[in-house]
Structures are given as structure tokens and as C-alpha cells.
Amino acid sequence: MDTEKRNRAFILEYYNALAGKRKTEELIRRYVSDEKLIGHIKFFEQTFPHYDAVVEEIYTADDKVFVRASKSGRHEGSLDDIPPTFKQFKMPFAICYRIRDGMIIDHWMIADQMELLEQLGLAGTIKPEFETREE
Fold first, then answer.
1. CB of 92 within 8 A of CB of 111?
2. pTM of the full predicted structure?
3. I want to staple 51 with a disulfide (CB 3.0 to 4.6 A). Which of 69, 73, 91, 125 is the partner?
């Protein structure tokens, strides 16, 4: 099996292993060595326990795997000091993984966080990390 096919199969196995299940550190580290991604998964798991992620499209190129997917779940943990709303959400995202020796070593991701906040009824309650300037 060539590298691209092996990486595609690895990412699909990773999604199947984590989707809808409790994401323990041990489970995450079976697939991921990228500390930023580990932190993201742990934060999301704490805020949206057992969230699901579904692959909608997947492309491979060399050591990279690009995935367009969606996350869904229920807001049951605090979100930036905001108590749980217990509302359901579904959020599209795109992520590109770099794979080496059967591990995710790096990633970049884009997601519509405003859509998530709107679904939770929190739009406007969380202060942005940056301020915009009007000219």
C-alpha cells in the first residue's frame, strides 16, 4: 500500500476510534503527537463530552491528509467560564493533518466558531481575543 493510501486509512481509523466516544489521553496519543491538537481535543471533550466527528470528504497528498468534516454534540462543560447550555450543536470544519510513522505530527484547522456560539445561544457573550479598529 502506498503512503497516501496508508495515511488515508490511518485518518479514517482515527476518526472511527474517537467519534462519539470518551476521548482519553491514552486513546488520543495512540494517533496524535501534535500537542496543540491534543489540547484542542481535550478541551472539546471537556466542553462537549463524547462529541462526534464525521468525515465528509478526504484528500491525500504526500504526508498530508485534508479532511472536510463536521462535529456534533451537546454543550455540557464550561466554555470560557460560561456554564453549560445543554444545547446540541453541529459545526462544519476543515483540517489538514501531517502524518509521519503512523502518527499525526502537525495540523491546521478552520472552523466557523461563530456558528457554534449561535447554536449554543452564546453569540455576543464571549469577548473576542482581539479588538477591531474602525477607521
1. yes
2. 0.85
3. 73
